[in-house]
Specification:
Layout: E1 4-5, E2 9-10, H1 33-39, E3 49-53, H2 60-71, E4 74-77, E5 91-95, H3 103-116, E6 119-124, H4 136-143, E7 146-149, H5 155-168, H6 175-182, H7 189-206, H8 212-219, H9 235-241
Parallel strand pairs: 3-6, 3-7, 4-5, 5-6
Antiparallel strand pairs: 1-2
GO molecular function: DNA replication origin binding
Organism: Neoroseomonas alkaliterrae
Pfam family, one: Hda_lid
Length: about 250
């Protein structure tokens, strides 16, 4: 379960969890706190629009979908945006906005939302002021758009996420095994979720607990898994992997 923060509210993990797009499934840490605060106050967005940016794998699309669902807004994909978009139900989320098929379509969308007083959330890898656009009018509007970034998740958040993924599957994995996994798995939520699914299937088939030996046998050769120095996990990872970590986020 997500940890309650800020007077009982719950936030979402800044990571792509395929099982849910609910805001209640998110946890907050330093990597996403500013972005989540802005997303909670769409009425305060300057000019009625906001850009959410960050590197691949930090869950921008997941957070964007959750925001669209919570607000009742439509969700669009930048590469598929063409022509004059229809009006949205109070707001629009445009994912991969920095990869739009037609710049003029994005300009029309920004203008349309401004004319109708609708909120617009743009999602990309860089702040909109850095997007390479050719239309001067579009460039000026992007530079005037407020932006909030999502960074790479900290070790504690990754540990809490991995513990949650196992708990959601009712799969008990010892803290030292989770710490060992965190040292070897790619640092993104999709990889952690896939690893948890693979280990769950293997443990069920073998009718055995998830150990280092089983995990190595199941994950060896998979692109999301890499061998590290075979030493004991650091205290940082051990603490990150413990169930109590979520209470700190």
């Amino acid at each position: 379960m997500a940890a309650p923060v800020r007077g009982g509210r719950q936030f979402a993990l800044p990571l792509s969890l395929p099982a849910s797009s609910a805001r209640a499934d998110f946890l907050e840490d330093a990597s996403n706190a500013e972005a989540l605060a802005w997303l909670d106050r769409p009425g305060e967005w300057p000019l009625g629009r906001l850009a959410l940016f960050g590197p691949a794998g930090v869950g921008k699309s997941h957070i964007a979908r959750a925001t669209a669902a919570a607000q009742g807004w439509r969700f669009l994909e930048g590469p598929a945006l063409r022509g004059l978009p229809p009006p949205g139900p109070g707001g629009t989320v445009l994912d991969d906005a920095d990869a739009v098929a037609e710049e003029r379509a994005l300009l029309h969308l920004i203008n349309l939302c401004a004319e109708r007083g609708e909120r617009l959330l743009l999602v990309g890898r860089e702040p909109p002021a850095r997007w390479p656009v050719g239309l001067p009018d579009l460039g000026s509007r992007l530079r005037a758009t407020a932006s909030a970034g999502i960074g790479r998740p900290e070790d504690a958040l990754l540990g809490a996420l991995l513990a949650k993924l196992f708990a959601d599957r009712q799969l008990r994995v010892a803290p030292d095994v989770r710490a060992w996994l965190l040292q070897r798995l790619a640092r993104d939520a999709g990889t952690l979720a896939e690893a948890a699914a693979r280990l769950d299937r293997a443990a069920l088939a073998a009718r055995a607990p998830v150990t280092r030996s089983l995990a190595r046998a199941v994950l060896a050769g998979w692109e999301g898994f890499g061998e590290a120095a075979d030493d004991d996990a650091s205290e940082t990872f051990a603490e990150a992997a413990s169930p109590g970590t979520a209470a700190l986020l």
